[in-house]
Design goal:
Shape: globular
Helix content: 40-55%
Structural class: alpha/beta
CATH class: Alpha Beta
Strand order of the largest sheet: 2-1-3-4-8-7
Largest sheet: 6 strands, parallel
Number of strands: 8
Distance between the termini: 49 Å
Order of helices and strands: HHEHHEHEHHEEEEHEHHH
Strand content: 5-15%
């Protein structure tokens, strides 16, 4: 059980309303994070033998919304077992995502992938891999295809956690991307937990970004619970990759508010640390940026939750796949 204090990210300043981001944009990012959380909370509530638990990204919504909003339609995305936020931020339909998890024919993969292997070609989502570090092993190939193909201006964004960064494939992918000058944005969502083990038990230092300096990669550590800071850093990184064709890394310091896999009583989590991170909840911080009252935020949450519940109900009513 960890009793360590919070890490100290090398934070970029948050973009103030009316400067780097308009009030409307700030508001839309709040809605995007609310949608992600409502979707995953619906999965948690609806869990049953016919709808098994999943790996959620509750508490990490700012990472998905901030980075994905900086990508263009020509860009590719590879994600991991906490993929719902990335998919929804990319424009995936919640009803079709629910249908996929529920094994219905109207799901993005015909109901065959569950929550851990969804791909959406139309959105440029190459794959969701439940294998830790699986996306890292494929990202250089995807980026090379982009570089040599008909859309050389496209880049590849690959999301992974601090656990994947502790594997050899992370260093192999970084080395290959740097050597071949591949247009990859490596996005490490450092959520402090590697399944049931705290990252401080597996990492000698605070930041994954420090590990790529020897390869010549530009890397930045950002407050991953501030969606405006994440977006500002992602916009800068994406522009630099398009201009230079060289890879970059963003490390987003965030926190996995729920357990590794639902259901999980989180008995291994330090209650003090957990409470400290809850005070830095990305949704609450964005609401404060907009100066929303508790009642205003509750109304917005209720509206989003209602839409998500309707999407879930529609997915439940969808047909099962036909037997071959």
């Amino acid at each position: 059980m960890s009793t360590n204090t919070l890490p100290t990210p090398r934070e970029l300043p948050a973009a103030p309303v009316g400067n780097a981001a308009t009030a409307s944009t700030v508001s839309s990012r709040l809605d995007a994070m609310l949608q992600i959380r409502a979707y995953e909370q619906q999965l948690i509530v609806a869990a049953s033998p016919s709808n098994p638990g999943t790996c959620t990204s509750v508490g990490q919504e700012a990472c998905a919304v901030g980075v994905v909003a900086a990508l263009g339609p020509q860009d590719k995305l590879l994600t991991n077992h906490r993929s719902a936020g990335h998919l929804l931020a990319r424009g995936a339909d919640p009803e079709r995502l629910f249908a996929e998890v529920l094994g219905r024919a109207s799901g993005y993969c015909g109901g065959h992938s569950g929550s851990l292997h969804i791909s959406v070609k139309a959105l440029g989502v190459v794959l969701t891999s439940t294998i830790v570090g699986g996306g890292l092993s494929l990202a250089p190939g995807v980026a090379l295809a982009q570089k040599l193909g008909a859309q050389p201006e496209g880049i590849t964004a690959v999301f992974f956690g601090d656990g994947a960064a502790c594997q050899g494939i992370f260093h192999e992918a970084i080395n290959l991307a740097a050597t071949w000058r591949l247009p990859i944005l490596f996005v490490c969502e450092n959520n402090q937990w590697q399944a049931y083990v705290h990252r401080r038990e597996t990492m000698p230092g605070e930041h994954v970004a420090d590990w790529v300096q020897g390869h010549g990669l530009v890397a930045e550590v950002v407050d991953g619970n501030d969606v405006e800071a994440v977006h500002a850093a992602a916009v800068q990184a994406v522009a630099a990759i398009r201009d230079s064709g060289r890879p970059r890394l963003l490390e987003l310091t965030t926190y996995r508010q729920r357990g590794h896999f639902e259901p999980d009583d989180q008995a291994y989590v330090c209650a003090t640390e957990h409470a400290q991170w809850l005070k830095r909840d990305p949704i609450q911080r964005q609401a404060e940026r907009l100066m929303l009252s508790a009642d205003d935020l509750a109304r917005r949450e209720a509206g989003v939750r209602g839409a998500i519940e309707q999407a879930h109900a529609a997915a439940l009513a969808a047909p099962w796949p036909q037997l071959a």
